[in-house]
Design goal:
Layout: E1 3-4, H1 10-25, E2 32-34, E3 53-60, H2 63-66, E4 76-84, E5 92-96, E6 107-111, H3 114-125, E7 137-144, E8 149-156, E9 164-167, E10 185-186, H4 187-208
Amino acid sequence: MPLVKPTPPTDVSAAINDGFLAFSIGSNTGIQRQGDVAQPPIMPAASQAELPIDAQAVYVLNLADAATIAGTAAAAPAGWRFFAGNTAPKLVLGWISRPDSSGKRRVTAAYTGDRVWAGYEAMANLALLPELQAHNYELRILMAPALNLEAFWLVSQDAGAPDLIAPFASDPMHLIPGLRTQPVYTMADFIAIVRPAALLLRHTCRCAGPGT
């Protein structure tokens, strides 16, 4: 079944278009730029806006909720990210903020390099997962910063089908070895694996106390 990629809301699309313009004219907009090469990443010019754009909503799961029964039901919206382009040398990963006090969103960071390309390929390969062949899923991004974990959150669009979590295979640094054994997990299995690690880390943080 096709993987549903939600259409970003109008203000997110506007932020992406503004980001194109900011990079193409080289203005100092405070956007963090980072790449794997000496030169900073360059977003395609506004005139190249026909390049493929893949945008995904980002949700953050804090440590307390990861350690409790709340689980991903408590994950909070934290902005959007997008891929611009679909070829390795020119591919850019951009991050879009939540609305500021004036209600405006903006591109806050842009990245290029091997890690960005690996993430794009992992996203493209989601459609090949056997688990996705029988049901429809919406693509989101789930982040658990305290656990150094990022994953694809596949939200079921069909009654009776569970949500799925596909950890980024290119990220070996997260703190949960149990999430390195297979490409995708049911939500129940994901929570069962994550909760003990979150509980342990939360207990360790409490024992360490403030200021450590």
